[in-house]
Please model this.
Amino acid sequence: MKIISFLALFFIFLIATVFFINSLPPIKLLTIKGNELYCEIADTPDKRSNGLMRRDALDSDKGMVFVYQEEDIRTFHMANVKIPLAIAFADQNGIIVHTTEMTLDNKTTYSSEKPAMYAVEANKGWFSSRQIKVGDKIEG
Model:
C-alpha cells in the first residue's frame, strides 16, 4: 500500500512539474559582441503589447526580444513599466539600427530611426556599458 501511495504522489509531482515547465515563457539566448542576454520572446501581438509591463525587477542578464514579421519603424512606450530599460532596434539581419535609454514615464515614446524587425529590451545601461552600438550584430 505504501508503494502505491508513493507512486501516486510521484506521478502527481511529475505531472505538476511538467505543467510548471510548460507555463514558463520561452527563452532565447542572444549574444551581442560576446555579451549574453537571456530573452523572453514576444512574438505575438498580445506578448508584444504587454512586454515587460508590471515587472518589479529584471535580472542583469535577462531581457525581452520583440519579433515582428517585417521591418518597419517600431515605437515603444514605458506605460505601466516599473523597471528602467534600454532598447536596441535591429533590422532583419540582426544589425542594430538604433539604441536608446528609456525613462519611467507614461508619455514618452521611443521609435527606431530606421525600419526594424526586432527590438531587444534590457536593463537601462546594459547596451551602453558593454559599448554596444549601431552596426553591431545580434546573434541568436
User: Anything to note?
Assistant: Helices lie at 2-23, 45-50, 126-129. The longest strand covers residues 62-72.
